[in-house]
Specification:
Distance between the termini: 64 Å
Strand content: 5-15%
Number of strands: 5
Shape: elongated
Helix content: 25-40%
Order of helices and strands: HHEHEHEHEE
Length: about 140
């Protein structure tokens, strides 16, 4: 029965009287600089990865107005994967044009990873494809 009550409280059908989830000291004492503003379309690796310089961001913009986080991350030297699959084709073209100008201006590179998915890499980042350079053209799968 508790799960039905929790679901009803989450939907706003009943008042949630369970105070154990609220920490008044934290909410009152939090300053504006300490508060998080999260955008579900932008994901960046953890702080430990940031300390070691191994971060990569994934951005899924909804429209051209969401291009700014792409530029800010790339300007900070973070490789960015831009997923444009949920955008309208005209806005997706504008974001690709923006990303191309961004990479040109900061001497980075842009590479298409999949249909409407692009990888923006800063100038000091090397892309490793996973294929060995000395591999023969008639590899494992060509055994006819």
């Amino acid at each position: 029965m508790a799960s039905v009550r929790k679901a009803s409280a989450w939907l706003g059908l009943v008042e949630d009287n369970d105070e154990r989830y609220y920490d008044d000291e934290y909410t009152e004492g939090a300053e504006a600089a300490d508060q998080w503003v999260t955008d579900p379309r932008v994901r960046v690796a953890s702080e430990s990865a940031q300390d070691q310089g191994r971060r990569i961001a994934t951005v899924t913009p909804d429209g051209f107005r969401d291009a700014r986080p792409i530029g800010e991350l790339f300007r900070d030297g973070v490789p960015v994967i831009v997923n444009l699959t949920s955008m309208e084709p005209t806005d997706a073209k504008r974001v690709v044009d923006f990303a191309a100008g961004l990479t040109f201006g900061l001497r980075g590179s842009i590479e298409r990873v999949a249909t409407r998915v692009f990888l923006l890499t800063p100038a000091d980042t090397e892309i490793v494809s996973g294929e060995s350079s000395g591999r023969a053209g008639d590899g494992f799968y060509n055994q006819s």
